[in-house]
Specification:
Strand order of the largest sheet: 1-11-10-4-9-8-7
Oligomer: single chain
CATH class of the domain at 16-74 and 84-103 and 155-217 and 233-248: Alpha Beta
Order of helices and strands: EEEEHEEHEHHHHEHEHEEHH
Number of helices: 10
CATH architecture of the domain at 16-74 and 84-103 and 155-217 and 233-248: 3-Layer(aba) Sandwich
Structural class: alpha/beta
Length: 251
């Protein structure tokens, strides 16, 4: 793809902004991972961030969720400046992050992992109700609620990671590579559930190596290349772009 300004395809459907990222920069010592990217997620929207390995996708999510401190730029959530806030201060504001590698507690049971996802909440009856909702989304977890997470398959661990993130009742869910290393049938199940979760009003910022699945789900998408945004547009517009199809869909 060509270097320079972001190529924008089509028009974005107007949405009330939930997350706004402006001129975000991230560095790891002398290595600059992000060079000032600007993106947004509207209320009720699914936004996909695609790109090759090392493009800066995970760094974007880690900066937004407070796992790394930005070197510059501004992050706002529901109109409030949250730049540099730690994750424990972002969760009560409605943000949840299911990181790459799942990050679940392998020595704890499925149910204990879910309860940890709600550790800041005090409405115990509603927490129990939400756990049952997660079990309805992923019935296999209900069958294994007392099992140690370490005994679950990779797909089941990913289901647990998503469920644990949902236990905080987020308005914005950040997902990093939910399909990584999973069987196609499991991936289809997870993306079907993501559509259902979004249908309940949860906004999603999705980093995903499977560009076809990500863009098919997304209302809007961004293409990240070596720390800069190369393209942006509605998911279907990007999916139809010859440049995207050549670079990320193997055509």
């Amino acid at each position: 793809m060509t270097e320079g300004a972001t190529q924008v395809l089509g028009e974005r459907r107007p949405r009330e902004p939930l997350l706004e990222v402006k001129e975000l920069r991230v560095s790891y010592g002398a290595i600059k991972a992000l060079h000032g990217i600007t993106l947004s997620v509207g209320k009720g929207e699914v936004v996909a961030l695609i790109g090759s390995n090392g493009a800066g996708k995970t760094s974007t999510l880690r900066a937004v969720s407070g796992m790394v401190k930005p070197a510059g730029g501004r992050i706002t959530l529901a109109g409030a400046d949250v730049t540099g806030l730690k994750p424990n201060l972002l969760v009560p504001r409605g943000m949840a992050h299911a990181p790459e590698g799942r990050g679940i507690f392998l020595n704890l049971s499925v149910l204990e992992n879910l309860e940890l996802g709600a550790y800041l909440r005090r409405d115990r009856a509603e927490v129990t109700k939400d756990a049952e909702y997660c079990f309805s989304l992923f019935p296999v977890l209900a069958e294994r609620r007392k099992q140690q997470a370490a005994t679950l398959s990779g797909g089941e661990q990913q289901m647990l990671a998503i469920s644990r993130a949902l236990m905080s009742r987020p308005t914005l869910l950040l997902l990093d590579e939910p399909s990584l290393g999973l069987a196609p049938q499991v991936v289809q199940t997870i993306f079907r559930i993501l559509r259902e979760v979004n249908g309940r009003g949860v906004s999603i910022l999705l980093v995903e190596q499977n560009a076809h699945l990500a863009l098919a789900l997304a209302d809007y998408g961004y293409v990240l290349e070596t720390g800069e945004l190369a393209m942006a547009g509605p998911g279907q517009e990007l999916l139809a772009s010859p440049e995207v199809r050549r670079a990320y869909l193997g055509e």
